[in-house]
Amino acid sequence: MFYSLRGMAVMMILVAGVSIYSLIDRSSHYAPATASVFLIDRTCDIVETTTSWDGKSSSRDTKGECSSVDEWDSVREKRSKTVSGTAIVHLSYTAPQDGSSHTAELKFTGRDDEFYRLKAGDEVKVLVRNDDLDKVIKA
């Protein structure tokens, strides 16, 4: 019992230390900015699985650019089918460090909400790296 309590305390301290380090790293190496989405390259792999009356399942796979897939609009809203893929979001922003315009990319997968929600013209909160103004991460 004593060892498990000590182990739990050590893990809590370790998690707190990593969290604090992450916060310090973000605040010292990045500056917040608002970016505008000007282009999204989405590729989708939509899998629809159906089960017949006799218990056999079959799947239909649709691959391609998401906007060219017929059921993309309904899948985007309802999330009724399994979707995997990537979305490369092209952003433009003004770097707070020097006030100049820059572009960057963020990548999202089918597991991210941004994969479905983002469209051209949307604004995204990002963190701009202090030593390389063309690198951003999601805030």
Describe this structure in words.
This protein has 139 residues and is an alpha+beta fold. The protein has one domain. Helix content is 29%, strand content 45%. The chain contains three helices and six strands. Strands 1, 2, 3, 4, 5 and 6 form a six-stranded antiparallel beta sheet that branches. A hairpin with a 5-residue loop joins strand 1 and strand 2 (57-65). The radius of gyration is 21 Å and the shape is flat. The model has no long low-confidence stretch (mean pLDDT 81).
Descriptors for this entry?
alpha+beta; 6-stranded antiparallel beta sheet; about 140 residues; single chain; flat
Stretches where pLDDT is under 50 for at least 5 consecutive residues are none
Strand content: over 45%
For the biggest sheet, the summary is: 6 strands, antiparallel
Count of strand segments: 6
The radius of gyration computed from the alpha-carbon positions, rounded to a whole number of angstroms, is 21 Å
Number of helices: 3
Gross geometry: flat
Helix content: 25-40%
Structural class estimated from helices and strands:
alpha+beta
| Number of domains as seen in the coordinates | 1
Question: What is the CA-CA span between the terminal residues?
Answer: 41 Å
Q: Can you write the helix and strand succession as a string?
A: HEEHEEHEE
Mean pLDDT: 81
